[in-house]
Each structure stands twice: as structure tokens, then as C-alpha cells.
Write a structure and sequence with these properties.
about 200 residues, alpha+beta, about 60% helix, about 10% strand, binds zinc ion
């Protein structure tokens, strides 16, 4: 479901002619106004959920939370809330993995969370080797995160809701990473497979 590389290609090409709607620095972003009215700023940045992690712009579509809740519906409100929070954090970690490597290779990463998962734009990597590393970084970040959670859970016995959080974190990070490594476009694995063929 993650189409970051396919979409990167599309958006990298698109950037040449039109600005990306995710670019918070784009002066045309708000009809040419550079200063937002307080209400507009609230609407733009809270309702549309735009923020930055370091220098990387992140946008979260509200429908991301609706789709996550539907996927993890278990009757208990607290369990659903934990599931949605875990999906948000885990998919953000996955996309930040891509984004940090894209930035390392001179790209300008931007992250979007939408009902289908996450997308990271702005890759400018030209070599298959770099594109493989960008693709690997998403699942890799999730696996490292799951490893840290696993290690922390060994240090502290878990009770009640902590066990729910732990179980959800392990499940989402491992399954999302493995699913994305399936060698099929537009998944990360498909992009890696395509780059591997280009390497030969
Ligand atoms: Zn990915």
C-alpha cells in the first residue's frame, strides 16, 4: 500500500511544472497570502494536521484515523484508541525511515499519512543502489522500532493496557514491514526488486 517510490517519480516530475500541495513553504499555498489569519492558521495546521519532524513536513489526512479505527474495530473504545495511536506512530516511523534516507541523499522529503497508509515524496536518488536503500529504510525503521519495544518489554513486566499497546506495536510494525517487502509494485519490495534488476 505504500507507493512512496512510484509516487516519488510522479511527484518529482510534477514538481517541475507545479508546486506540491504539501510544501508548507510554498508562497502560493494559501492563495498568495504569506501570513495566515489566526482561524486560517488553526484550520490549516490543526484540522489538516500539518506539522514538522525536524525539517521534514508531515501532513495527516483526518481520514487516516477513520480508516485505522475501522481496520482495528474491536468494540472496546480504549482498545480502538490504542490501535489508532499505534497505527499513527508506527506508520510515521516507517515513513520517517524513508524520509531520513531521502534527506541523507540530498532529496527534500515530505510525508503524508492517508487512509491507505503513508507516502514519502521528494526522493531525488538516481542510482539503483540508493533507491534500494531508500526503500529498505521504511521497513527497516519499523523493525528497529519493534526491536526496541521488544527489548523494553523484557525489562519491565507489562500489565493491562500496556500489554495491548505492546501487542499492537509488535503486530503493526512487523506485519506492516513484512507486507511492504513483498516484491510487488507499488510496495517497497516491488521498488527494491525493480532497482535490483536495474543493478544487473
Ligand atoms: Zn515504505
Amino acid at each position: 500500500m505504500l507507493e512512496h517510490l512510484t509516487t516519488i517519480v510522479v511527484h518529482t516530475r510534477r514538481e517541475e511544472s507545479e508546486p506540491c500541495p504539501l510544501d508548507l513553504r510554498n508562497p502560493n499555498h494559501d492563495n498568495g497570502r504569506t501570513e495566515l489569519e489566526p482561524f486560517d492558521a488553526w484550520r490549516e495546521h490543526i484540522l489538516a494536521m500539518k506539522f514538522r519532524i525536524g525539517s521534514i513536513p508531515v501532513q495527516v489526512q483526518p481520514s487516516f484515523f477513520v480508516a485505522s479505527a475501522m481496520l482495528g474495530w474491536r468494540g472496546e473504545t480504549a482498545d480502538v484508541a490504542i490501535w489508532v495511536a499505534v497505527c499513527f506512530v508506527s506508520i510515521l516511523v516507517h515513513e520517517m525511515g524513508h524520509a531520513l534516507v531521502i534527506a541523507r541523499f540530498g532529496g527534500t522529503p515530505r510525508v503524508l499519512l492517508y487512509p491507505g497508509g503513508g507516502l514519502t515524496y521528494g526522493d531525488k536518488s538516481k542510482t539503483p543502489g540508493r533507491r534500494i536503500l531508500v526503500s529498505l529504510a521504511g521497513p527497516g525503521a519499523g523493525f528497529v522500532f519493534a526491536g526496541v519495544v521488544f527489548a523494553l518489554a523484557r525489562l519491565h513486566p507489562l500489565h493491562g493496557m500496556q500489554q495491548t499497546v505492546y501487542g499492537d506495536l509488535m503486530w503493526v510494525n512487523m506485519s506492516w514491514g513484512l507486507f511492504n517487502l513483498v516484491p510487488m509494485l507499488p510496495l517497497d519490495g516491488g521498488n527494491m526488486f525493480e532497482s535490483l534488476i536495474a543493478l544487473r
